[in-house]
Design brief:
- The protein is built from 3 helices and 5 strands, in the order αββαβαββ.
- By secondary structure, it is of the alpha+beta class.
- The chain is globular and about 45 Å long.
Length: about 160
Amino acid sequence: MSAVEAKLAELGLTLPSVVPPLAAYQPAVRSGVYVYTAGQLPMVEGKLPVTGKVGGEVTPEEAKELAATCALNALAAVKSVVGDLDRIARVVKVVGFVASAADFTGQPGVINGASELLGAVLGDKGVHARSAVGVAVLPLDAPVEVEIQVELVAD
């Protein structure tokens, strides 16, 4: 077991299977020392645990937990192309999308769920640049979607 997966276990988390693509794309692609993930929805065992707009049907607290699930799914996507999460040198960038009710402005707090999970799992390697964007709707009416870019330790 990798050190990253041991840390996940210590936190009571398990790396899920890679979420299959919903359309014509790959869950993650490697280019040189970087891995870029597709946007990851908060799928759990093939389903969204909740749907709707944050600030409407979904509370900001629920959405923050869903963002953490997205980050966990993103780590699974990274592992699918590099084989070992210990190869992560650092998380470079996180982009989070929040399906927002018209008056909801707490997108950064929601995406903190992803950022905090990456920090808890990867320590200093999980510190990253980030964007948190409010959108009208996401695929499958998901409340949140997260993509990450990681740099790998050179071969």
